[in-house]
Amino acid sequence: MILSIRILLFLLLPGATVALGQGAPVQDSTRRLEILQAERYNFEKKDSVTSLLSLAGKVRLRQQGTLFFADSAVLNQYTNVVEAFGNIHINDGDSLHTYSKYLRYRGNEKLAFLQNNVRLVDNKGSVLTTSELLYDMNLGIAEYHDGGKITNKKTVLNSRNARYYDATKDVVFTRNVTLTDPEYHMATDSLLYNTRTEVTTFVAPTTIVNGKRKIYTSNGYYDIKNGKAMFGKRPTIIDSTYSVVADDMAFDDKEGLGQFNGNVVYVDTANGVTVLSNKLFANKKTSSFLATNMPLMMLKQEGDSVFIAADTLFSGRLSDMKNRTVPLLTDTAGTGYQPPDLTGKDSSMNRFFEAWHHVRIFSDSVQAVCDSLFYAGTDSVFRLFDEPLVWASDSQVSADTMYLFTKNKKADRLYAYFNGFIINKISGAFNQVRGNTLNALFEEGNISYVRAKGRAESVYYALDNQDRFVGMNRSSADAIDMFFENKKANRVKFINDLKGVTYPIRQIPPDEDKLKGFNWQEQKRPKGPYELLGR
Asked: Which domains are delineated in the chain?
């Protein structure tokens, strides 16, 4: 009896160890628990495999570099089980602190089961909160299966299940996962999050809400700390003014930059513009984008949308053009003209787009090709440069430079200067007018009138009442007006210094039926939007 008491007192002295084993004292010293402190104790040996040591009052235990704190605890020497109650605190090497109201700890496996108000806090300040937690201290893995959350600075993640890896600071969340940040809200079924880097990795269909912007993705990552992201597997973005879908995309939200790759569909809902391309760069701060790799722009119009293809397309705000001046071409400019307030009430005009190289334009009423194009919202004019060609019905217009004016998003007037030339095909023949400048007017998408000035010349075929050729007139004048009806030239008017000759239809001399520079280029004419897609 005296010997038993002495053994018990030895076991309870501060610094004493309790050997924990399965039916026998543990031989491995790394598995031994040291009792550092307890105000009260009780020892009870129930049978050969049950020896209970009860501790109460500011209990403090140690196993290697791990400290255990509790209000009370019961240790079983043979099963290696420690049960602790009230104000549990596990200090695992000062890198991880765990708190709860109940603890069941299996010393051999270094496996802890915690219940009631469980909190796990790492040395970076991340806090895991749940009702029940299984913590493998040997592997540094903690997991819950009955709902919980992790708070990291201003970011809060909730889920039904989670597994935390202390070595890498990774957390795998599954089932009903939500992430809430001052700027973002995410919802998914599975999510990987690193508390050190604050990088979120997406492995399942995920919805991200950022103000009015929604992102749908099932692959990629988001770096919350640096505001950078990459999404794969055909993600979609829907904003208040635009939407975009691509094979993959990347963002720098702090700089407002985005890159979209592969089968990109960009829709500017505010301005009725859609862009298809294989690579698109966007700048949210300047509301600009650059599209390459076979881009196609579609300008939505009622009944007659415009399709524009080129090697490169760019769009931005006119107010951001610091080193370039855009000449105002609108007909309303003049005395008393007030320029638009682009950053105020006229902000809808504060747009431009331009295209470079192999530009092709198609609409039901007008088609065109050129090497570069510029369009400004202040005057609604398409500026066509470098050997432009414009077709409308059976007419072709060419010049060194052309301005196509639009009204209510439809062709209204065409101004061509330097070597202006219009050809109107009629039953295998060609009416022609050329001059230094050409002005053409449109009605319902068709050319109704043309005036040529500056060394103006014309070739015009006269018809009888049954639309049969009567003769051909070749003339020159200071200015020539050609009038159209039913898409065909039906009258010519000459102004000042008229010189000309009329030939019977069967007596036209060779080469007199073509003005200098004649070049009917129907093969270059875009035939439809699908042709632009497959160019």
From this structure: 16-146 (2.60.450.10), 363-535 (2.60.450.10)
